[in-house]
Design brief:
eight-stranded mixed sheet; four-stranded mixed sheet; 22 strands
Length: 510
C-alpha cells in the first residue's frame, strides 16, 4: 500500500509491504520512513489535516481511527525539520521512528552537528572537506550500487554484465519530449460558464493567489485507429542495454476523441505563498458526496484546473504543479498508463486578458513520478532528479529536467452545457460576495416560469445539487433528483419540488 505524507519540504511516498492494510498503524508508517530518513525530526506529528491539529493515534490501526479512509494514495500531513531529512546512504545506522521524534537523537557514524548561519545547531551527513553541502562526493560514502541503494554484493553475490546493465537501466531515463497527448483531435471541451465563474473569483485577488479545482465531465471514446495494436508496446521498458525510452511515436494507441467538462468543484484549500503548489489542500468532509453525485449524473473526474499568477513567457507550470498533474494522471489511469486526464491553467496576460490552456504530462513524466525520481528544487521551472536516478539529456546526465519537456498541448474549445447551468455560488470560497445559502436557492429557483426557465433547468446546477446533499438523504433522495437532471424525460416528483421550494422559502408556484 502507498501512503503519501505531505511535509513542509515536499511529498513523501511511503510504500508499506510489511503489513496488511488492516494492521497498518501510524507507527508502521514512521518505521517505514525511518528506513530511508533515519534522522528526521518531526516538528508536528502525522495528522489528517494540513494544520496538524488532529494527530493520529500511534498505536491503533489506521482503519479504526475516526476520519481515516484507508486506501492507496491516502494523504497524511506532518511538519519536519528540513535539516534532518537527508535520505540514508548505505552504511548509515538506522534509527527507529519513535526516536526520530526527539531532537536529541544520537547521530550515526556518518553524521555530525554543525552551527548554522543563524546560530542554531543542526545534524547533517558528513562529507568531504572540499564540498560541505554534498552527500555523494566522498568516495568512502559510495558503498551502495547507487546513492540510497544497497551495495551490489548485498543484493546478490555474483553478477554478469547483462544482469548489472539490466539493473542499472531501471534507474536511467533518457529524456525525450512526447509530441502528442492522449486526447484525440477534438481535444477538450470546457464549459464556458464554469470557467468564467472560476476566473471571476481569481480576479478578486488580481490572480495573486493560486487556487485549483477538479473538472467533472465525460471521456467520449472513439474507435481504435485501423492497424493499431490492441496490446501495449512495452519495448520502451526493456530490461536490456540502454536507458528506458519513452514510447515510440509509431505505436498506435486508443485515444479519447474528446474530453467534455460539465462542472468544476473547488475543494477546501488555503492560499499559501510558502507552499510549493501555492496552496494547501484541507480535509474535505464532502468528498464522498461529490463523487457520489457526480456518478449519479454520469460524470467522473476528467481533469483539474489551476489558477496561476502572471508568469514570464514560456513558464507554464512549476515543478510542484507538474508533479501534482502526474500524480492525478496516475490516479486516473491507476498506474503508468495512457489517460485523457487533462490539466488546465488559468492566468492573466499582460493586457489583463484571461488565458486558459490545456495540457497533459507525458507518460515518461508519470513513470518518473511513480518511481519518485523527480523532486522539487529551488528553481520552480525545473524538476530536480533524485540522486538515485539518472536523467540523460543530449547524451549526458543532467541533474534537472525543464518542466516544458514533460508537457503536451491539448486543443481546447469553449461550449455551453445542455445539461447544467452555473449560477449557484461555489463552495469553499472565503471572502466571496455570495455564499451558499437558502436565500441564494430562492434567488435561483425563483426564476422558474420566467424567460423559458423550468424548475428542473434551474435545479440542474452541480454546486446547488451538492448543497442539497447537506439537507436531503444522499442515498435515497439524490438518486431520484439526479435521474431527472440527467434525463429530462424522467419527471421530478412533485414531492421533491415542494420540499426544495420550502427549503428555499418560495411561496409561489414552481
Amino acid at each position: 500500500m502507498i501512503i503519501r505524507v505531505r511535509t513542509n519540504i515536499g511529498i513523501w511516498r511511503v510504500t508499506i509491504t510489511s503489513a496488511p492494510p488492516s494492521s497498518i498503524t501510524t507507527q508502521t508508517i514512521l518505521d517505514t520512513i525511518a528506513q530511508t530518513r533515519p534522522h528526521v525530526v518531526y516538528e508536528a506529528p502525522l495528522s489528517l489535516d494540513p494544520k496538524c491539529s488532529s494527530p493520529l493515534d500511534t498505536s491503533s490501526p489506521l482503519c479504526e481511527q475516526s476520519g481515516v479512509q484507508l486506501r492507496d494514495g491516502l494523504m497524511l500531513y506532518c511538519k519536519v525539520d528540513a535539516s534532518t531529512c537527508a535520505e540514508n546512504t548505505v552504511g548509515t545506522t538506522s534509527a527507529s521512528a519513535t526516536a526520530a521524534f526527539s531532537a536529541e537523537t544520537a547521530p550515526s557514524t556518518n553524521t555530525k552537528r554543525i552551527i548554522d548561519k543563524d546560530g542554531s545547531i543542526k545534524l547533517i551527513h558528513t562529507t568531504d572537506s572540499t564540498n560541505p553541502t554534498s552527500t555523494t562526493n566522498n568516495p568512502s560514502q559510495q558503498l551502495g550500487f547507487r546513492p540510497g541503494l544497497m551495495p551490489l554484493r548485498d543484493i546478490k553475490k555474483s553478477w554478469t554484465l547483462n544482469e548489472f546493465t539490466a539493473m542499472d537501466d531501471k534507474y536511467n531515463f533518457k529524456i525525450k519530449r512526447q509530441e502528442q497527448s492522449f486526447v484525440g483531435v477534438e481535444g477538450l471541451h470546457l464549459e464556458s460558464g464554469a470557467v468564467d465563474c472560476f476566473q471571476r473569483y481569481l480576479r478578486r485577488f488580481q490572480f495573486r493567489q493560486q487556487r485549483f479545482g477538479y473538472l467533472y465531465g465525460k471521456f467520449v471514446e472513439e474507435e481504435e485507429e485501423e492497424g493499431g495494436k490492441e496490446e501495449e508496446d512495452r519495448s520502451h521498458l526493456r530490461q536490456g542495454w540502454g536507458a528506458r525510452m519513452p514510447k515510440s511515436d509509431e505505436t498506435k494507441v486508443k485515444k479519447n476523441k474528446k474530453v467534455i467538462v460539465e462542472a468544476i468543484y473547488e475543494p477546501p484549500q488555503e492560499a499559501d505563498a510558502d507552499a510549493a503548489e501555492g496552496f494547501v489542500i484541507l480535509e474535505d468532509d464532502q468528498e464522498e458526496n461529490v463523487e457520489h453525485v457526480a456518478s449519479l449524473l454520469g460524470l467522473q473526474k476528467v481533469g483539474w484546473i489551476v489558477g496561476q499568477p502572471p508568469r514570464e513567457t514560456g513558464f507554464q507550470f512549476s515543478a510542484a504543479e507538474v508533479i501534482m498533474a502526474a500524480e492525478l494522471q496516475l490516479e486516473c489511469a491507476q498506474g503508468v498508463e495512457e489517460t485523457p486526464f487533462v490539466t488546465v491553467r488559468c492566468t492573466v496576460g499582460d493586457e489583463g486578458n484571461v488565458i486558459v490552456e490545456a495540457f497533459q504530462v507525458s507518460l515518461q513524466c508519470m513513470e518518473m513520478v511513480a518511481e519518485e525520481a523527480l523532486d522539487i528544487g529551488p528553481n520552480p521551472g525545473f524538476c530536480y532528479v533524485n540522486e538515485t536516478f539518472t536523467a540523460i539529456q543530449e547524451g549526458k546526465p543532467s541533474p534537472t529536467v525543464e518542466n516544458n519537456f514533460f508537457l503536451t498541448l491539448v486543443p481546447i474549445h469553449g461550449y455551453q452545457s445542455d445539461m447544467f447551468v452555473t449560477q449557484f455560488p461555489f463552495a469553499n470560497r472565503p471572502f466571496d460576495d455570495r455564499g451558499q445559502t437558502h436565500d441564494e436557492m430562492k434567488r435561483q429557483l425563483g426564476k422558474s416560469g420566467q424567460a423559458g426557465w423550468t424548475f428542473i433547468d434551474l435545479l440542474s446546477d452541480f454546486a446547488l445539487l451538492l448543497y442539497l446533499c447537506k439537507f436531503l438523504d444522499v442515498s435515497q433522495d439524490m438518486p431520484k433528483i439526479c435521474e431527472s437532471v440527467k434525463d429530462r424525460e424522467v419527471l421530478l416528483d412533485d414531492g421533491y419540488k415542494i420540499i426544495i421550494s420550502s427549503m428555499a422559502g418560495m411561496d409561489g408556484s414552481y
